[in-house]
């Protein structure tokens, strides 16, 4: 649902000057402040590995459940500036992507 209404969510957060942390980088590229969540490209790679194993004859029920192994932090400095926030340099240094 958040993806469907992302522009409304981002607009309301901005109007009410709420610094929001999102689960998906797409919300930050659309104007949100910060996202921290699983790297979706890595999740697709893991899924491809499962498909490969199933096509080679393994039973899906026998495959282990896998949790995400890589998370990414994305920060939008334009949004931070609009909200009057200063992002600490250590947090910027840890970010996988900084949108300026």
Overview of the molecule:
The radius of gyration is 17 Å and the shape is elongated. The chain has 100 residues and is an alpha/beta fold. Strands 1-2-3-4 form a 4-stranded mixed sheet. The chain is built from 5 helices and 4 strands; from the N terminus they run H-E-H-E-H-E-H-H-E. The mean pLDDT is 92. It has helices at residues 6-15, 25-29, 40-55, 77-82, 89-94, and strands at 21-22, 34-38, 71-76, 97-99. The two termini are 27 Å apart.
Q: What is the topology?
A:
Elements: H1 6-15, E1 21-22, H2 25-29, E2 34-38, H3 40-55, E3 71-76, H4 77-82, H5 89-94, E4 97-99
Parallel strand pairs: 1-2, 3-4
Antiparallel strand pairs: 2-3
Count of helical stretches: 5
Shape: elongated
- Give the strand order, joined by hyphens, for the main sheet: 1-2-3-4
Order of helices and strands: HEHEHEHHE
- Report the biggest beta sheet as strand number plus sense, adding barrel if it closes: 4 strands, mixed
Q: What helical percentage do the residues reach?
A: 40-55%
Strand content: 15-25%
The rounded Rg comes to: 17 Å
The poorly predicted ranges are: none
Terminal CA distance reads 27 Å
Secondary-structure class: alpha/beta
Number of strands: 4
What's the mean pLDDT score?
92
């Amino acid at each position: 649902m958040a993806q469907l209404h992302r522009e409304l969510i981002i607009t309301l957060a901005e109007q009410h000057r709420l610094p929001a942390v999102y689960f998906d980088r797409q919300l930050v590229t659309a104007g949100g402040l910060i996202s921290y969540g699983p790297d979706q490209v890595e999740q697709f790679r893991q899924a491809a590995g499962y498909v490969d194993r199933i096509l080679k004859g393994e039973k899906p029920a026998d495959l282990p459940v896998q949790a995400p192994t890589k998370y990414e932090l994305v920060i939008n400095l334009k949004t931070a500036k609009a909200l009057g926030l200063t992002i600490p340099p250590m947090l910027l240094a840890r970010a996988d992507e900084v949108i300026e």
